[in-house]
Write a structure and sequence with these properties.
Shape: elongated
Radius of gyration: 18 Å
Structural class: mainly alpha
Helix content: over 70%
Strand content: under 5%
Order of helices and strands: HHH
Number of strands: 0
Number of helices: 3
């Protein structure tokens, strides 16, 4: 990770722990969302705008997590350095 002056720091990196917590929470949310969507479509037969917005937000969250974890990591670190 970078320090405030843009140099690499020797502090321990907690990214593995943070990523495991993020993906485990995302997995729980995805299971709950899947159960909700199946219930709303098969049992109740009522699909609303709120269901669509929840699905779109999960897709956006998945895209954002991929950007942070993958190619966009340096870009996000630069953004954080410019903000703080």
């Amino acid at each position: 990770m970078f320090s405030m002056d843009g140099q690499l720091s020797n502090q321990p990196n907690d990214s593995i722990m943070l990523l495991s917590v993020m993906w485990s929470e995302f997995s729980v949310a995805a299971v709950i969302l899947t159960a909700r969507i199946l219930t709303r479509t098969l049992v109740i037969s009522s699909w609303g705008w709120d269901d669509m917005s929840i699905c779109l937000s999960m897709v956006f969250l998945l895209y954002l997590a991929g950007e942070i974890e993958g190619e966009g990591r340096k870009r996000v670190e630069r953004l954080i350095l410019t903000i703080f």
